[in-house]
Specification:
The chain starts with a strand and ends with a strand. The strands form four sheets. Strands 3-2-1-4-8 form a five-stranded mixed β-sheet, sandwiched between helices. It has about 500 residues and is an alpha+beta fold. Among the domains are: about 120 residues, Nucleotidyltransferase, domain 5 (2-Layer Sandwich); about 110 residues, 2-Layer Sandwich (Threonyl-tRNA Synthetase, Chain A, domain 2), CATH 3.30.980. It is elongated, with a radius of gyration of 32 Å. Helix 1 runs parallel beside helix 3 and helix 8 runs antiparallel to helix 11. The longest helix is centred in the middle third of the chain and has 36 residues. It is about 35% helix and about 25% strand.
Length: about 500
């Protein structure tokens, strides 16, 4: 398990824990009070790992909808219209493909969901962004529950778990696909066992009323809990011919999932947190602004790996030369005697030469050659580090592609002859958040180019969001680039000659 900061958010409580090598090395609790956010801000100042935020809130809504099967920009536009229709008031929303229909138009069955009370989530997320913590995503307990039921053969399954700071969570799956989920808070006067026996019949009737459970179909119920609580539940669960129970001890489940944790009660929070760190889902509630610093963090790691790969390749090349030379060792030993004899003869001849010094012009030429060779040995890090710092100052630029190469044919300043190859970086990306305002977007991109030129780069625009040249065609640009403002730049840099 990778090192990470795991966060579990309920309506009035935030649990934080730092994981290293699959073990919990630090834990803190923060209440939703006036002092809680300040304490959390002080805590994250010492954190250098990517963060995963898991929420378990009543205010999570689920809607199933069939939409036409589209691709590309048309699909994105349709999903955005659905988001505005269902969840206009929150940025924490997502759409998950359940399946594609096999008849008719073969539409897509989608599950739209959202956290409908962003005020519970936003303050904590803003603290992470203010301290530039790389937030990998915002997930919910129902989203990451699917792996806990994939081994169950039932096509109609209700998963019940209890999270101490949130309540009793009931998540319904049809053919192992999430359909709906309910959270019932549990007060101090209501035990886990009592909550299950009270809420389970209500949920069964709720599923029947929504026609999510076909008539005459048995409902399988998987209960996660501590062994002692499950033992007590066996005698108190409602007897119903239409329900079948599967009681799973948390310690047994943790062993199957490779989670090193011992449970003292039926609180399943650690099951979900560990699963999130091991295998986070691809979809989540965070948007590009929320994961901006995580994107930069991943890009820096990729650049470090590229630099390391180049170094390893150079070492491997040198090692292969040494290995190859070993095959010639026998011939080398045979030639040593001849070489020694020749060296002795050369020494006798050179000793007879008059004592002269090399001309200054030859020494100058030798030094110049050595300097040229040294300048041509460069690392991509020299060009990438200033580029990374410039991207940090322009968060509305999102990278799609990044390429690097050495190019001796790249023109030098004033078209003067160049003796040192140039480092050429090809950068393709998108401008986010301009909503069709091309003037502002072009200005933002121009300022980014000027910033790069101040860093010593030569910048050439290969493509802009809007072609404003006399020969450009700007017809229908609003329709074709309403969602994405793409651009491409060629950035070159040459060591001092």
């Amino acid at each position: 398990m990778k090192s990470a900061l795991l966060l579990f958010l309920s309506a009035s409580h935030l649990h934080a824990q730092i994981m290293e090598g699959g073990k919990i090395v630090a834990q803190r609790e923060f209440e939703d009070t006036s002092a809680g956010p300040d304490d959390f801000a002080a805590f994250v100042k010492t954190v250098h790992y990517p963060a995963y935020l898991l929420v378990d809130l009543i205010e999570e809504d689920f809607r199933q909808e069939s939409i036409p099967h589209l691709i590309g920009g048309s699909r994105n536009a349709l999903l955005q219209r659905k988001f505005e229709q269902f969840y206009r008031g929150t940025p924490f929303r997502q759409a998950t493909l359940l399946l594609r229909q096999k008849t008719g138009r073969r539409d897509d069955d989608m599950l739209f969901s959202a956290l409908t009370n962003p005020a519970l989530v936003t303050p904590w997320v803003n603290i992470l962004l203010a301290h530039k913590i790389p937030l990998s995503g915002i997930y919910s307990v129902p989203q990451i529950s699917a792996p806990l039921v994939k081994d169950h053969p039932s096509e109609y399954l209700l998963l019940i778990s209890w999270e101490k700071s949130a309540g009793l969570r009931q998540t319904y799956f049809s053919e192992h696909r999430l359909q709906i989920s309910r959270l019932t808070p549990i007060n101090a006067d209501l035990t886990f066992q009592d909550a299950v026996t009270r809420e389970l019949p209500r949920t069964y009737q709720y599923l029947k009323s929504l026609s999510l459970l076909p008539a005459g179909q048995m409902l399988d119920v998987r209960l996660l809990g501590h062994g002692d609580d499950l033992l007590e539940l066996r005698s108190t669960l409602p007897e119903n011919a239409d329900m079948r129970y599967d009681l799973v001890e948390l310690d047994d489940l943790a062993g199957k999932l490779g989670i090193e944790h011992r449970f003292s009660d039926s609180d399943a929070s650690q099951i979900f947190l560990h699963r999130l760190a091991i295998d986070p889902p691809q979809t989540h509630y965070a948007n590009t602004e929320h994961v901006h610093y995580c994107t930069l963090w991943r890009m820096r790691r990729a650049l470090h790996w590229i630099a390391g790969g180049l170094l390893a390749g150079s070492l491997a090349w040198g090692t292969s030369d040494i290995w190859q030379s070993g095959w010639n060792a026998d011939e080398t030993r045979a030639m040593v005697g001849d070489a020694q004899r020749i060296q002795n003869e050369v020494k006798q001849i050179t000793d007879a030469f008059p004592n002269t010094q090399a001309p200054a012009s030859e020494m100058k030429s030798s030094v110049s050659i050595m300097r040229d060779l040294d300048r041509q040995t460069v690392s991509p890090g020299n060009a990438m580090r200033p580029l990374g710092r410039a991207l940090d100052r322009y968060p509305r630029i999102e990278l799609d592609e990044l390429g690097w190469k050495m190019d001796a044919a790249e023109p030098a300043a004033n078209n003067a002859p160049a003796t040192v190859p140039a480092q050429v970086v090809t950068l393709k990306g998108r401008l986010l958040g301009f909503e069709g305002n091309y003037r502002t977007a072009l200005g933002y991109l121009d300022r980014f180019q000027i910033e790069l030129e101040k860093q010593g780069y030569s910048v050439t625009a290969l493509g802009k969001p809007l072609d404003i040249s006399p020969g450009g065609n700007i017809s229908d640009r609003e329709e074709t680039q309403q969602e994405t403002l793409t651009f491409a730049l060629k950035i070159s840099r040459r060591a001092a000659e």
